UniProtKB/TrEMBL annotation:
Protein species of origin: Echinococcus granulosus (Hydatid tapeworm)
Pfam families associated with the record: Phosphodiest, PigN
Highest taxon of the lineage: Eukaryota
Role summary: Ethanolamine phosphate transferase involved in glycosylphosphatidylinositol-anchor biosynthesis. Transfers ethanolamine phosphate to the first alpha-1,4-linked mannose of the glycosylphosphatidylinositol precursor of GPI-anchor.
Transmembrane segments: 12-32, 526-543, 549-568, 599-617, 652-670, 676-695, 711-731, 737-757, 764-782, 844-863, 883-905, 925-945, 965-989
Any GO CC annotation of this UniProt entry: endoplasmic reticulum membrane
Keyword Nucleotidyltransferase: no
EC supergroup of this enzyme: transferase
Domain annotation GPI ethanolamine phosphate transferase 1 C-terminal: ranges: 492-952
Pathway(s) per entry: Glycolipid biosynthesis; glycosylphosphatidylinositol-anchor biosynthesis
Name this polypeptide is given: GPI ethanolamine phosphate transferase 1
UniProt membrane topology term: Multi-pass membrane protein
């Protein structure tokens, strides 16, 4: 017999390995290493490039009908330069946006998870290539571009304003832009001579650096958008101040005409912003950034009557649309430096005013640069696979590359520059497709191996151990559904496969095989040891021979390892024997047998509920249908409510679920704010908590309210609502939030859970109300709209669910007292667990509620576009790490409440003599826990199969996020169940256990 601890440890290890597989398959870095630098073959077009980024600036707020608020930029567009749109990618955040601008590629998620702002960029950028680099701006952006190998280099000057100036509620937010321009003005007064030199390096060790690069990061637009929103008058005033600062910069250069005539200017934004003041997702307002370019070798305004949707003020002036990463090779070509190593941008030739012959040379160098990345990537993949199995990118083979390069060279020699440019552009696009092909090479096989590992892991969860389960019900429906032709389909469908495992492992007629039979079917331990040793040798050999990481090779042979362990398990072999011979028999337990058709109908309804939760990941509105379907459950399942006044309870449950169904149909949280609604939800929650406590309490010895933890929590709930209302009011008045308010909010955040946990009253009603308020108070301090009402409704449904599952009357259930240990052992069942519809219903309800708690008020995009206004009670100065931690805690609050509810159901059922998921018997895994893992595996495999690597980056990011969440549900469900049980009766109250018993 394998111990329960070993099974749990093995399950957790496999879960973590399979969970991490997504990072090894989909989150691998696209960077190509091994790029060397050669002396650029072209001269510099300009001596200095000034790059101005208005962080978070909305393109439609700048390009208004007449640009009446920005006369300076309007004059540049009409008389001096070119304008257009820069199209960004998701996530629309500051770090990936600036990486695309200065390094020329869209940073992979693996790098982003290392830190959005603080950690330095570890790859090549314009800051590395330029001879001198000067940057002024925000502390969240500018420092990360300090080249690691140029620390202490006098030719690199990077300065950021104090972190305290990132206060979203500051009275004068535009001061950050003024600070940047002031520092640049001071620099030009004292060090302008540095820009007059013909700056270049002829040393290969120094990277053949040339030119001067000046980066001015203006972040007032981002701060103002978060605080006042883009449609406010304050935002318009900020844009006017931005234009004034642009005019100041131009005036500075007019004072130095020798520098100005050798300078090119680029003005853009790293990302946009939504109407409600957030960014990160893929709406047009977030992914379209304004672009204005002027100066030396930049074309002046040209007529373009063929353009549509031009602004009135442009008078049909041509608009340029480029990708954000295309600006990186543009800067490199202007300065005459090598394009940064990992740049995948395509040089926008329309933004250069040079001869066609020069353009051909520039685009040729751009094409050869990306071709070199493709060649390195090709060699890497070829070295990691058997040559006779390796498949080259068919659309762009080496022969085709040579042919196209020869054709382009011939066209340039014949002065057919237009055709040569088009050929090189086609080479660039095919090279990018090839890079994507080789980057994703082998992903299908890896995915197939991981999916098969999920299946083997599910089999392993059932097969290891000695637990046998008896099913309440006859043999009829499941066996007929899952044998025969469905057996073959089960190998392709994990849903059917999980049900098949249910039949195979829980429906044996002989729960305790005879000792001789068991001995006869069990192989020697050395067979398994030898097999595992051979698998490990194969793992090391393949990893070394094909230059793959050890972990990646491990994933490929993980199904083999799990299969060997399964074949070593007697129950697995017995199950296969019984399955193929169709010798299953079902042991009926209970006085009343259900018909096969009704049992099959209940299973179908449970699967339907799971599908509502599953597709609710993608379409929130389906969660509403799932909640309504949940409300009708008592009318379909007679085992759900067994109390006397069943019709009345059916209506109560249905009404509660219908109210809960409203919230997924409401706008996403973050789209609107209403401090009044937040205060109202806190008042309603406090009143209902007070009423429930008064109903449940029968003791005549009641302590004063200030000595009762739950009444203190009710008071704190009212205070938290008032604090939110006060903070929002002060922000709207542009008044700084007193430090005392922040201190009180932090105290409430920490003290509320502790107050509930240290409460020595273990009556169910008291404990539930206390723990609910303990997580509602921190949750409410971060509310901006209807989240508080959602939490209240959600808690009401959970309270009702716990009560109805207990099969006890209202006062009888809520008057129970919790104990640290079980009152008694469950009744003997001859080694069997009793598995009925409730054993399937409770885990499914639990998973559905976990999903509902996460997506009830938002989705992945709304979480990604986190609005800092929700944490103003705690901080107003930008701190991504702390703000992210608070956001995660807010998301977890309703999820933890679900874990508490599920744990309480287990405790009550255990005390009443039913073996459930919360009470292991003799170290065995319980059916509900196993069913919970099956459901989690089903969700994980489903979303693993739905992972996207094509289409918009928002779709790709959401598919990955869905998989991570689904994968987390299985492990988190077990953790939350234990955490909820611990919260109900913490370990430090064991000394009081003699006074706490179940009634």
């Amino acid at each position: 017999m394998v111990s329960s601890t070993f099974r749990t440890l093995l399950s957790v290890v496999l879960y973590i390995l399979l969970f991490y597989s997504i990072f090894d398959v989909y989150y691998t870095s696209p960077l190509v290493h091994g790029m060397d630098y050669k002396r650029p073959s072209r001269p510099s077009l300009v001596g200095t490039v000034v790059f101005i980024v208005a962080d978070g600036l909305r393109y439609d707020k700048l390009f208004t009908l007449e640009m009446e608020n920005t006369p300076t930029l309007r004059g540049i567009i009409l008389n001096e330069g070119s304008w257009g749109y820069s199209h960004t990618r998701v996530p629309t955040e500051s770090r990936p946006g600036h990486v695309a601008l200065f390094a020329g590629f869209y940073e992979d998620v693996a790098s982003i998870t290392k830190g959005w702002q603080a950690n330095a960029v570890e790859f090549d950028s314009i800051f590395n290539r330029s001879y001198q680099a000067f940057a002024w701006g925000g502390p969240d952006v500018v420092p990360m571009f300090q080249p690691l190998h140029r620390v202490g280099d006098a030719r690199v000057k990077i300065e950021s304003y104090p972190h305290v100036m990132l206060d979203f509620t500051a009275e004068n937010i535009t001061q950050v832009d003024d600070w940047v321009v002031d520092r640049f003005s001071d620099f030009m007064k004292t060090h302008s001579h540095l820009l007059l030199k013909t700056n270049s390096s002829e040393s290969p060790e120094d990277g053949f650096r040339k030119g001067n690069f000046i980066f001015l990061h203006l972040s007032a637009a981002d701060q103002m958008g978060h605080t006042k929103k883009p449609d406010s008058e304050a935002y318009t005033a900020m844009i006017h101040n931005l234009d004034t600062n642009i005019a100041r910069i131009l005036a500075i250069f007019k004072e130095h005409p020798n520098i100005a005539q050798e300078t090119a200017f680029i003005f853009t934004s790293d990302h946009g912003m939504t109407d409600w003041g957030s960014h990160g997702a893929g709406s047009a307002h977030e992914t379209i950034a304004p672009l204005i370019v002027w100066g030396k070798h930049i074309p002046r305004p040209m007529s373009a009557n063929w353009h549509s949707h031009l602004l009135p003020f442009t008078r049909n002036l041509g608009r340029h649309d480029i990708h954000q990463a295309d600006l990186c090779p543009l800067i490199a070509c202007l300065l005459g430096i090598a394009i940064p190593a990992n740049s995948v941008g395509e040089l926008p030739l329309d933004l250069l005013d040079v001869d066609s012959s020069v353009k051909v040379g520039l685009i040729r160098e751009n094409a050869l640069h990306i071709l070199k990345q493709l060649h390195i990537k090709y060699e890497e993949q070829k070295a990691g696979h058997y040559h006779f199995l390796f498949r080259e990118f068919s659309k762009f083979t080496q022969k085709q590359i040579d042919s196209m390069l020869e054709s382009a060279a011939l066209q340039a020699t014949n002065h057919d520059y237009v055709a040569a440019i088009e050929t090189y552009r086609r080479i660039i696009r095919l090279s990018l497709e090839g890079l994507d092909y080789y980057h994703k090479y082998g992903r299908f096989f890896m995915g197939l191996a991981i999916k098969h590992s999920y299946i083997k892991r599910g089999e392993l969860g059932f097969s290891i151990g000695d637990t046998k389960v008896s099913l309440i019900g006859p043999r009829t429906c499941l066996l007929e559904l899952l044998t025969g032709a469905a057996w073959r389909a089960a190998r392709l469908s994990y849903a059917v496969w999980s049900l098949l495992l249910y039949v195979d492992t829980f429906c044996h007629s002989d729960p305790k095989p005879r000792g001789n039979e068991h001995k006869r079917t069990k192989p020697d331990s050395w067979v398994l040891a030898l097999s595992l040793f051979i698998a490990i040798v194969i793992l090391g050999f393949l990893s070394n021979a094909h230059h793959q990481s050890l972990l990646r090779t491990f994933y490929q042979i993980l199904p083999l390892i799990l299969g060997l362990i399964l074949l070593w398990t007697p129950r697995y072999r017995q199950g296969l024997f019984h399955l193929f011979c169709r010798t299953h028999s079902f042991k009926a337990v209970g006085e009343k047998k259900q018909s096969g058709s009704k049992y099959g109908l209940m299973l179908a309804l449970l699967v339907m509920l799971m599908e509502f939760g599953l597709w609710g990941f993608v379409h929130r509105s389906l969660l509403s249908f799932g909640a309504i379907f949940l409300g009708t459950w008592p009318y379909l399942d007679s085992t759900f409510i067994k109390l006397r006044n069943r019709p009345k309870l059916q209506r109560i449950w249905c009404c509660a679920c219908c109210v809960l169904a409203i919230f997924p149909l409401l706008p996403l949280v973050g789209s609107f704010t209403s401090p009044t609604l937040v205060l109202f939800s806190n008042i309603c929650t406090s009143m209902l908590a007070f009423v429930l406590l008064r109903i449940c309490r029968r003791s005549e010895h009641v302590l004063p309210w200030y000595r009762e933890p739950n009444y203190l929590l009710i008071f704190e709930s009212l205070v938290s609502g008032l604090l939110v209302f006060l903070v929002r009011t002060l922000v709207s008045w542009s008044v700084s939030i007193p430090i005392l308010v922040h201190v009180i909010c932090w105290i409430l955040l920490i003290a509320s859970p502790l107050l509930a946990l240290f409460n020595k009253n273990f009556v169910v009603c008291e404990r539930l109300v206390g723990l609910t308020l303990a997580f509602f108070i921190p949750f409410s301090l971060m509310n901006v709209f209807y989240e508080g009402l959602f939490f209240l409704t959600f808690a009401t449904v959970l309270f009702t669910w716990i009560w109805l599952e207990s099969d006890l009357e209202f006062h009888e259930f809520y008057s129970l007292k919790l104990t640290t240990e079980s009152q008694g052992k469950p009744p003997s069942t001859g080694g069997l667990f009793h598995v009925d519809l409730a054993s399937l219903r409770r885990p499914l309800f639990y998973v559905f509620f976990v999903i509902y708690s996460f997506f009830g008020t938002g989705n992945i995009a709304s979480i990604n576009t986190f609005d800092p206004v929700s944490v103003y009670c705690f901080m107003t100065v930008l701190n991504p790490a702390a703000m992210g931690a608070l956001l995660i805690f807010k998301i977890l609050c309703p999820i933890v409440l679900v874990g508490i509810a599920y744990s309480l159901i287990g405790r009550v059922k255990e005390s009443l003599g039913s073996a459930t998921a919360s009470s292991p018997v003799h170290g065995a895994l319980h059916p509900e826990t196993t069913f919970l893992m099956i459901i989690a595996n089903f969700l994980a495999v489903h979303f693993f199969a739905m992972l996207k690597d094509e289409g918009s980056w928002l779709d790709i990011g959401e598919s990955i996020s869905h998989y991570v969440i689904a994968m987390s549900i299985g492990l988190a469900s077990v953790v939350l169940s234990h955490l909820g049980s611990w919260m109900l009766v913490p370990t430090w109250v064991k000394t009081h256990s003699d006074r706490m018993k179940f009634l």
